[in-house]
């Protein structure tokens, strides 16, 4: 064989996807990395599920292999999605691989540069909408309802089937379920998918129990925390700049059935966690991903995260997605002459 076959084939008996020919980029099997510094800070055993290691750099590939496989099986020729950037990058890549046309609706000026570059590279029809993600999703749903194009947002149930495999992988590697699972939450498909995966493994006796699900949102885009939609969501973490999550009910079920919680983190705390992950753990993620770690630190500090817990934080997307945030505040510097003395001087070695 050719090694890891991708999530649909790796979990063939557990993932319900129509179609015999699986469209895959061999996504999944991502690293579960022990986080020593975060473990020291929290008194817990913390692991990072590094989803930026997927083929297009985010967890969306797990759901997109399933969604595009199903679209091909149904005879679809075109797919459409609304996106804050990662879904569109993934849809564009898998559609290109399958020979389908893709159209992506993105909020104008509010998607990170790398994600836009991916959609361009894979040949998507890119429609920048003068509105936010919630507006884009409504447009995508209406278009798919009235025209022969398949909607591949996570409101398409087959996406959730693919994404739940991350929970399987974590249990397979740890040999048990974690005590707590931390996730950034935007449209809430992913927390819905993880909870389905954990529950299925527990129900089938593969592992003993399921983790408490901790969902974190950005303060300016925290509808689940406040219990009502947010009309004008705002956050530096553009991936989760969402005011009206489509999988609201799934997220609430995950929280309630798991004895979990929702909590809002500030942009400042998101950026601090973002820098800590890159600077101390060596894991470069995009800002939205750092919301899970900002939330980990907040709940450790306020006593809601029990010391000694086995915790997994999903870091959902790669840092290269958003170079602008990485370069925020970088000073302009004069280039050096080709001179060893200048290098030693600049590095304060002399
Ligand atoms: N982290 C990243 C990097 C994301 O791109 C998203 C969602 C989330 C977290 C939240 O996941 O929506 O399942 O709760 N991105 C979507 C997109 C909305 O269009 O790429 P969720």
UniProtKB/TrEMBL annotation:
<dbReference type="InterPro" id="IPR000634">
    <property type="entry name" value="Ser/Thr_deHydtase_PyrdxlP-BS"/>
</dbReference>
<dbReference type="InterPro" id="IPR036052">
    <property type="entry name" value="TrpB-like_PALP_sf"/>
</dbReference>
<protein>
    <recommendedName>
        <fullName>Threonine synthase</fullName>
        <ecNumber>4.2.3.1</ecNumber>
    </recommendedName>
</protein>
<dbReference type="InterPro" id="IPR050147">
    <property type="entry name" value="Ser/Thr_Dehydratase"/>
</dbReference>
<comment type="pathway">
    <text>Amino-acid biosynthesis; L-threonine biosynthesis; L-threonine from L-aspartate: step 5/5.</text>
</comment>
<dbReference type="InterPro" id="IPR001763">
    <property type="entry name" value="Rhodanese-like_dom"/>
</dbReference>
<keyword id="KW-0028">Amino-acid biosynthesis</keyword>
<dbReference type="Pfam" id="PF00291">
    <property type="entry name" value="PALP"/>
</dbReference>
<keyword id="KW-0663">Pyridoxal phosphate</keyword>
<dbReference type="InterPro" id="IPR026260">
    <property type="entry name" value="Thr_Synthase_bac/arc"/>
</dbReference>
<dbReference type="InterPro" id="IPR001926">
    <property type="entry name" value="TrpB-like_PALP"/>
</dbReference>
<feature type="domain" description="Rhodanese">
    <location>
        <begin position="79"/>
        <end position="122"/>
    </location>
</feature>
<comment type="function">
    <text>Catalyzes the gamma-elimination of phosphate from L-phosphohomoserine and the beta-addition of water to produce L-threonine.</text>
</comment>
<keyword id="KW-0456">Lyase</keyword>
<keyword id="KW-0791">Threonine biosynthesis</keyword>
<dbReference type="InterPro" id="IPR004450">
    <property type="entry name" value="Thr_synthase-like"/>
</dbReference>
<comment type="similarity">
    <text>Belongs to the threonine synthase family.</text>
</comment>
């Amino acid at each position: 064989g050719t090694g890891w076959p991708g999530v649909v084939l790796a979990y063939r008996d557990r993932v319900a996807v129509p179609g015999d020919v699986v469209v895959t980029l061999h996504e999944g099997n991502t690293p579960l990395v022990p986080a020593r510094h975060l473990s020291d800070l929290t008194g817990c055993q913390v692991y990072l599920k590094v989803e930026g290691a997927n083929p297009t750099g985010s967890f969306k590939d797990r759901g997109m292999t399933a969604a595009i496989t199903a679209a091909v099986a149904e005879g679809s020729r075109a797919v459409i999605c609304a996106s804050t950037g990662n879904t569109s990058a993934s849809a564009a890549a898998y559609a290109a691989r399958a020979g389908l046309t893709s159209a992506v609706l993105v909020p104008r000026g509010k998607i990170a540069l790398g994600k836009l570059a991916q959609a361009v590279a894979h040949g998507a029809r890119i429609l920048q909408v003068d509105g936010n993600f919630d507006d884009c999703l409504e447009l995508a749903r209406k278009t798919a309802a009235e025209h022969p194009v398949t909607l591949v947002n996570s409101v398409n149930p087959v996406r959730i089937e693919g994404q739940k495999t991350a929970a399987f992988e974590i249990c397979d590697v740890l040999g048990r379920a974690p005590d707590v699972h931390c996730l950034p939450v935007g449209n809430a498909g992913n927390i819905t998918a993880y909870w389905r995966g954990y529950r299925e493994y527990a129900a089938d006796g593969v592992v003993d129990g399921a983790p408490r699900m901790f969902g974190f949102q950005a303060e300016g885009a925290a509808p689940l925390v406040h219990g009502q939609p947010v009309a004008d969501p705002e956050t530096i973490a553009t991936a989760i700049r969402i005011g009206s999550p489509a999988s609201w009910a799934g997220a609430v079920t995950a929280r309630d059935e798991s004895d979990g919680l929702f909590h809002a983190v500030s942009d400042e705390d998101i950026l601090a966690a973002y820098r800590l992950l890159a600077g101390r753990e060596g894991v470069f993620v995009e800002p939205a991903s750092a919301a899970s770690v900002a939330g980990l630190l907040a709940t450790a500090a306020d006593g809601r995260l029990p010391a000694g817990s086995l915790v997994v934080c999903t870091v959902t997307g790669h840092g290269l997605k958003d170079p602008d945030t990485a370069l925020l505040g970088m000073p302009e510097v004069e280039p050096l002459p080709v001179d060893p003395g200048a290098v030693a001087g600049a590095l304060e070695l002399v």
